């Protein structure tokens, strides 16, 4: 008898949306998106630790990992992979949600929005990056044609940044955009300090 085929949507260190939903009560879900993205809709019970604040959260995450498995979540998988790499380097074992929050929603699973969240959800960070990068490329090309060819270096710089981002699985533009006020707002009075206390079991 042939062995059952492996599930292509998950690996030993990842769960697909259906697997994660079935185990949600036994997992500590950590959402590493910006506070505004988190407020736009997150997995039930997920705690928000933005990727750029992960270093500060490591001790609390180590405590939480000692009590049970951690599931790291972002929008589509890029930031969760970066977070898991950082945590692995500190000896913290984690799981990844294959397809991220977008994949979870695509399967029809519930997303939670905190009380007081804006009626119009903020764009996902990947979409914000595409908008800004595309706009800068167009501006560089237009100014290069209208004013001086040197402006085309702006477009070249953005293109180089995107290549570097793909090769290193990092995104400096996302880090910068994540610091803008509309991405940093705390919704429902839950800030990082309160989240760390919950992760530490206090």
Structure notes:
The chain is of the alpha/beta class and 202 residues long. Helices cover 50% and strands 8% of the residues. It is built from ten helices and five strands, in the order E-H-E-H-E-H-E-H-E-H-H-H-H-H-H. It has a five-stranded parallel beta sheet. Strand 2 (28-31), helix 2 and strand 3 (47-48) form a beta-alpha-beta unit. Helix 6 packs antiparallel against helix 7 (152-168) and helix 6 (125-146) crosses helix 8. The protein is elongated, with a radius of gyration of 19 Å. The termini are far apart. 30% of the residues are buried. Mean pLDDT is 86; it is low at 1-8.
Q: Outline the biggest β-sheet.
A: 5 strands, parallel
Look at the helices and sheets and give the structural class: alpha/beta
**What overall form do the CA principal axes indicate?**
elongated
Integer average pLDDT? 86
Number of helices: 10
Poorly predicted residue ranges? 1-8
Distance N to C terminus: 51 Å
N to C succession of SSEs: EHEHEHEHEHHHHHH
**Strand coverage percent:** 5-15%
Strand tally is 5
Short descriptors:
single chain, 202 residues, alpha/beta, 5 strands, disordered N terminus
List strands and helices in order, with pairings.
Layout: E1 14-15, H1 17-22, E2 28-31, H2 35-39, E3 47-48, H3 54-67, E4 70-73, H4 78-89, E5 94-97, H5 100-106, H6 125-146, H7 152-168, H8 172-178, H9 181-184, H10 192-199
Parallel strand pairs: 1-5, 2-3, 2-4, 4-5
Helix pairs in contact: 6-7, 6-8
Explain briefly what this protein structure is:
With 202 residues, the chain is α/β, with parallel strands linked by helices. The chain contains ten helices and five strands.
